[in-house]
Every structure is written in C-alpha cells, then in structure tokens.
Amino acid sequence: xxxxxxxxxxxxxxxxxxxxxxxxxxxxxxxxxxxxxxxxxxxxxxxxxxxxxxxxxxxxxxxxxxxxxxxxxxxxxxxxxxxxxxxxxxxxxxxxxxxxxxxxxxxxxxxxxxxxxxxxxxxxxxxxxxxxxxxxxxxxxxxxxxxxxxxxxxxxxxxxxxxxxxxxxxxxxxxxxxxxxxxxxxxxxxxxxxxxxxxxxxxxxxxxxxxxxxxxxxxxxxxxxxxxxxxxxxxxxxxxxxxxxxxxxxxxxxxxxxxxxxxxxxxxxxxxxxxxxxxxxxxxxxxxxxxxxxxxxxxxxxxxxxxxxxxxxxxxxxxxxxxxxxxxxxxxxxxxxxxxxxxxxxxxxxxxxxxxxxxxxxxxxxxx
Length: 368
Prior knowledge:
Helix content is about 30%, strand content about 20%. It contains 13 helices and 14 strands. Helix 5 crosses helix 6. It folds into 2 domains: about 60 residues, DNA polymerase, domain 1 (Orthogonal Bundle); about 300 residues, TIM Barrel, CATH 3.20.20.70.
C-alpha cells in the first residue's frame, strides 16, 4: 500500500544516493532523484523521465515522493490563504500563506513584494498556552520532516515565497529532529538553497531543544515571551515552569545575534536575528511596569520585540489591549533602546492569525 512506502521528500543527497545504490542503480541516480524532487518539484516518480522505466518501477515498489496537495483552502479579504493539509499518517494540519503587496496593501499585478509561509511542526500542541487555540486542541501527533516540507513543496504559491516561519501549529523544539531535518533540506545547496536568515523558528523556550537548535542551526530564532514576570507568565504559559524565561535569556546571552533588518541584512552580517514575540492583553501585560520589566529582562541581548494583537478565542478570559495602549507600549520600548515593532494582523477573518490555528474539528470527525 502507498501509505507504507517510504517518502523521498526530506531525504538528503547522500541518502538519495544510498536509495539509488540500494536498488542497483548507479550512484549518479541519487543526484537525478535530488534534482527531480528539490529543483523540478516532481509530484510522482513517473515524471523522472531520465531514469529508465524499469528503474522507476523498481523505485515505486518501495518509495513515493511523499507530496500531497492541500485538501482545503480559505481565502481572507486581505490576501492571506489558510491551507489544510493531510499528513502521511492521516491527520490534518493548517498552513498559512501571507503575501505582502507593499505599504498600501493594494494588490498589484504580478507577484507580491514579499510572501511568508507559516508552517506547522505538530498536529496540536503540548504547551497548553491559555490564549492559543492550538494549545486548546492538545497534542495529537508529530509531523515528519516530509510533512513539514510538504507544506512548502505543495503550496500553490511556493514560487513567490521569500520567508518561512515555523509559527504554525505545534512547538518546534518539541519535534526538533524533524524541524532540523526540514531546515537542513531548505538551506542545502543541492536542495532549496534558502538562506537560513530567511527562515525563523519560534519556540516558547524548551530546555531540551534551545541549546541544540542554537548549536545545530543558523536560522533565526523567535521566543514566545508574552509576559516578562515569571510568576505571571507561568499562569499563562505552563512551559515557564520547565525552563523559565530568565533561564532562556541566560542561555541566549552566550550566543551572538544581530538586530539588523535592512535590505542588506542577508549579506551584511554573519549573525542570526533574535526576536521576542509579545502578545498584548488588556490590563494583564500592557502597563508601564510590564514594559520596564521587559526592558530589564532583555537588556543583555541584541534583540527585537514584535508586539502582537490578541485575537479573541471562544470562552477566553483574555481581551486585547486597545490600539492607543499598544502604540504607547511600543513607543516606550523604542524610546528606551529596545527595538520594537507592531506586527500587522493578517487573516483574522479566516482564523489564520496568530494563536487561531486548530484542526480539532477535522481530527474529531475522522478519528472519533
């Protein structure tokens, strides 16, 4: 059965060469496989016409590309598209495509100026953050590296992409083997050849994954902070009880980062970028005392802060801070030397914005 076949998507050049040799094919067939998958983006082994028909039939006995098109799509009025993918194990995961057509937001003819894909690393999530729909869903399954890459490989707009963020469903450091393999393929010269500075991996800050990611990856890092006071952060984010935010900062102090974000950022520095994500909740973490605590916490780091509007979820005790308080908070941090931006909300009308992704309904319908 096709479900039992091994996926070629996510294999390295060396591994594809081993596949070829193991089937009795010449070693150069590994490079041919690599080109068909990562350069030509083949959807089936039958497309690999520079392999003999006999070789293709032999390959199909044990392997499949491992790519599958999205099973559903929701389109936002702002151009954002939320895709639903089915995994190789039959679960569901959401992926968000976010085009940027410029400051005025108008869609011009041709491709967007920038385009970001927000990929998922798990079905559901174990972290249990109180303000997140994915956290409410709970953990369902790990995604394989092939499942992660398929969100990019089978994206209809894949050729317009300029940035990749691991900020969808799941905690990337809780599935770090698959995430690191996916980013290895994305940045390898024989595969996608992306600059690691165009890829950002987000985490609440897990002890078992933070140091390993910093040592084994050159991609940018975003830490989901959301509250600078440990005791109060723990009430919102159970992960604080495992590796506290002060401990996260202490680890990060041992590494070099750069907050440079100009157009020559990719060529102009060897360091990766460090960002802290901070959702503002009215009356909970948006006061001057919180801004001051944030300044003290992050003072040792060369980093940026992204302020995010809270998007209400059903039966939530939280509510968004008002726009005036949001801007005041940003201005205060910037005035005190902490580079801060306000992230534009995208796709809220299709539940594609930060914290709104969930496949609980689809999972219940299939597996109940």
